[in-house]
Amino acid sequence: MTTITSSIPATAEITEEVRKSLQSIGVDPASLDGTRETRSPITGEVILRTKVHNDEEIETAIAQAAEAFKTWRSVPAPVRGALVKRWGQLLTEHKEDVAALITAEVGKTRSEALGEVQEMIDIADLAVGQSRQLYGKTMPSERPGHRLAETWHPLGVVGIISAFNFPVAVYAWNTALALVAGDTVVWKPADATRLSALAVDTLLARAVSDVGAPEGIHHLLLTDRVGGQKLVEDPRIALVSATGSVRMGQEIAPLIAKRFGRALLELGGNNGAIVAPSADLDLALRGIVFAAAGTAGQRCTSLRRLIVHSSIADTLVSRIVDAYGTLNIGSPTREETLVGPLINAGSFKAQQDALVQAVAEGGEVVYGGNRVLAEDQPEAYYVEPAVVRMPAQTAVVHDETFAPILYVMTYDTLDEAIEIHNSVPQGLSSAIFTQDQTEAERFLSASGSDCGIANVNIGTSGAEIGGAFGGEKETGGGRESGSDSWKAYMRQATNTINFSGELPLAQGVKFL
User: Fold this and answer.
1) 279, 350, 351: which is closest to 315 by C-alpha?
2) Cα gap 99→370, rounded to integer Å
3) pTM value?
4) Which of 8, 105, 257, 439 is the most buried (most CB within 10 A)?
């Protein structure tokens, strides 16, 4: 097995930085006096222990959020926007502190962790602008002296369930928009990222105090899956926004539907990219390597399937292998590191199992897949990103493994490439690398990519908050961020105003 060359900090060093960041943000020390362990994937060891909310505390949080909604919904939207603006300012002031927590808990490089906090700041900016643009429409009526209008009203309590890989950004996507829409929020973060959650929730509490917003409009629940299920099943939760695996979505969607609640689901990705013969291979190489190996393959938008024209496949694979060989794997606290650790042993096992299956189905591992050992850190799981040449349409490429594996397949015609690309059950992000406008337009058309995100000459990861984020098929169909995503957090009403002095009926119906 390969050995890491860049040094891994001691757990005590990580813990000290985490404590300093939490203290700077103002996290209540009492919340850190608990029994639930938080381990850093950098060393695999415990850095802190936090409290766990019990059933009574969960019930209290939901009840308070439901009660606070009665006040918050009547606050003018631009005033609600002032709260989100202040939250964005505090996130900007503590960007380094929050990023340090993300690095410690998730294993993201500092650059990627800072980028996640910037996403929070960006969505706050977007939401503040939208607080003055929650537009309805006025429509012509078929009846004289009548006017039709569309109005939008706050929805209620929004329950947010987030995943470890983006521990705070996805929460902010939902919370910033929900708050300006007039909703209140109850959040269950991933069990592995409770410290980051405490930090950003504390900053939101400070913003609430600074602008004089009502108490009780946001709540953080440090709980397990059972606690999360309470959010899913509680009829006071108007909308459940959940990010996670397809399996999770399959479990919770029927429970939400049973009580006629609303669901916003962001589930599996298994994203693909097509590389055409006309592609700029230098540009494609950069996009492919970051999308496939960045965040150790632990993004929902990570590139997992590469569909390359047969005339350039050998050349491109050789260049990818050479590029992978230069990636610095090690502690995400070090500036030179490009690939940090997997979140835990389970992720490593999933990668190894997938590689065994790939070989059994006719694949060839042409690079990587080995564990990279750090001295004295047996509980940390660093791995080489893997490149696997695969025949098309095998079973393993249809499943998403949340680890850095890039399956490479070949095609001869664009129709064949699109068929291979669309054959998987997931539909989040996609890309094509081409200099041929016809190929690009075909990929973006209704007969092209079937994903919610379709890119040309960039990789599958790295979405901006100005565009709607979400996917189709088993990805769940939800949309977060983007120009009109606020509608998911509001309810629509149609109003008919009669100023005619008469009472004509629609469709020419006569009565009395």
Assistant:
1) 279
2) 28
3) 0.96
4) 105
Tell me if residue 300 is catalytic.
yes
The one-character DSSP state at 86 is H
- Known catalytic residue: 451? no
pLDDT at 3: 57
> Which amino acid type is present at position 143?
R
- Indicate the residue type of 407: Y
Measure the CA–CA gap between 454 and 272, rounded to whole angstroms: 10
- Of 23, 336, 53, 294, nearest in space to 166 by CA: 294
- For 376, residues 6+ apart whose C-beta sits below 8 A from its C-beta are none
Which listed residue (45, 112, 116, 266) is catalytic? 266
Burial of 401 (0-12, 13-18, 19+ CB in 10 A): buried
Report helix angle 77-93 to 110-130, nearest 10.
Answer: 160
| pLDDT higher than threshold 70 for residue 465 | yes
Residue 235 exposure: Cα atoms within 13 Å on the Cβ side = 3
Q: What percent of the chain has pLDDT over 90?
A: 93
* Strand segments (E) across 93-183: 138-140, 146-154, 157-161
User: Residue 482: pLDDT band by 50, 70, 90 thresholds?
Assistant: confident
* Marked catalytic residue, from 105, 116, 119, 300: 300
